[in-house]
Specification:
By secondary structure, the chain is of the alpha+beta class. It contains five helices and four strands. It folds into two domains: 49 residues; 89 residues, no CATH class. This is DUF2939 domain-containing protein. It comes from Rufibacter roseus. Keywords: Coiled coil.
């Protein structure tokens, strides 16, 4: 009786060992197949998304229009408004000359510095969750208007300003403001 019980237990443990070994080898073979699939997909992603790193602070040159070589020889030209986006926030030569005649030595820098000094009086929105509202980006639009982006790290918005310059003194007027 002891021998029979011993043989049954031995057969049961041998069956379990074979069963678990078979399951482990099946799982390993599936793992190899899945790793090959993942490697293949990663290679496809690399192929389709490989682009050189672009620093977000460096200006990107405008895309040149493609010439259509169809039989009618029609050329594709970008709309005039496409160039405006690149010029947004830069003063024209005429604006610079007018502001220099009004007493500013370096108009764009002088305007930005003055706005940064006077921002507390122009920002009416208060910071939330311990943040302090401050102007983060300024675009001088022309010889009378500027656009500023403000935020406190949690909330932000835009501010449209009018400025006037007399004898080198700059005064700011808030025209419109909205939060994002």
């Amino acid at each position: 009786m002891k021998n029979t019980l011993f043989l049954i237990l031995t057969a049961f443990f041998l069956f379990l060992a074979i069963y678990f070994y078979w399951g482990m080898s099946k799982a390993e073979s599936q793992l190899v197949v899945y790793e090959e699939k993942v490697t293949s997909l990663e290679e496809q992603v690399r192929r389709y998304t490989h682009r050189p790193n672009v620093d977000s602070l460096t200006p990107i040159s405008p895309v040149t229009p493609q010439v259509d070589t169809s039989p009618d020889d029609t050329k594709v030209t970008p709309p005039e408004s496409a160039a405006f986006e690149d010029e947004l926030g830069s003063l024209s030569n005429g604006d610079v000359q007018r502001l220099k005649r009004k007493g500013l030595k370096n108009p764009e820098a002088d305007l930005m510095n003055d706005l940064m000094r006077k921002q507390k009086s122009l920002l009416t929105t208060s910071g939330t969750m311990g943040g302090t509202m401050a102007i983060r980006d300024i675009r001088i639009l022309n010889d009378r208007h500027a656009l500023a982006y403000f935020e406190d790290g949690h909330n932000g918005g835009h501010l449209l300003l009018r400025y006037s310059v007399e004898n080198g003194n700059i005064s700011w007027t808030r025209l419109d403001s909205y939060t994002i």
